[in-house]
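Practice record 12: protein with PBG.
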Amino acid sequence: MRESTLSSADLIWPVFVVEGDRLREPVSTLPGVERLSIDLLVPAAREAALLGIPAIAVFPVLAPHKKDARGSGALDPSGLACRAVRALKDAVPDLVLIGDIALDPYTSHGHDGVLDADERDVDNDETVAILASMAVVHARAGFDVVATSDMMDGRVAAIRRALDEAGLTATAILAYAAKYASAFYGPFRDAVGSSRAGGPVAGPIDKRTYQMDPANRREALREVALDVAEGADMVMVKPGMLYLDVVREVREAVDVPVLAYQVSGEYAMLRAAAEASAFAWEDALLESLAGFKRAGADAVLTYAAVEVARRLQQDGGHGR
Ligand code: PBG
């Protein structure tokens, strides 16, 4: 009588990769998550694949001196993300590799795009052109899916055109279509070092000129429709846990796969409450993921993917 089920095949594992060798760095605001150097990421990815997790999303973490105002590292075919994907493809060929297309890991100011003349906002169109090249570089390096987490307008169409022109017709586009300007990205920004803006708007980073207002529901449907029309193969709602109403509405509005992201702050919130003995971690985690499935998500990105997949395997794949 159970109406929806959770299996490891529903999970996508977001991972952070750093330069170096045998490096495993905890993220203080994201307990249980570690930034790994490529040599340690490869066996971790192999374990994820063996547990039945079909895909991972790779986020590079650059040292501050490698960042600049234009995010030029994003276009480097021998940059960290591209080297990671080559190593992962060689070692775990069946694992689907999702590359993040946005400039924030690469910019000194932490924004997802380049800034306009007075440095108060991103320059949408200039950024779109860079993102299209970035998608080609990442697809050539071996990413199966390019994921637009930047929220610039028109980038899906530009990326689709650039991929087609480069002959990369098998690369899929996952559009972070409805991405809200959320406080719950805090731990992720700590992990990649993008939490504070510089320049005239120094202070905690504010992405409200391109990410969506949490109060808006119709706008999410409009953003999703635009991205699908521009050629997105899959769409995402993010954050997920706090926006399950949006997940459900998007699921009903389109026929492409709908993904949802249990973002860093949502994961950290569950961990912190469990550590304070408010509830049992695994029970709360599985319940939160059951909610995503019930809302209609076809796949869920969660930092707990490996942990959940191990637990599901113990339970014979049936959950609780
Ligand atoms: C940025 C990006 C963010 C996340 C994924 N890609 C943060 C942001 O928009 O500032 C957040 C993911 C999370 O919080 O887990 N392109």
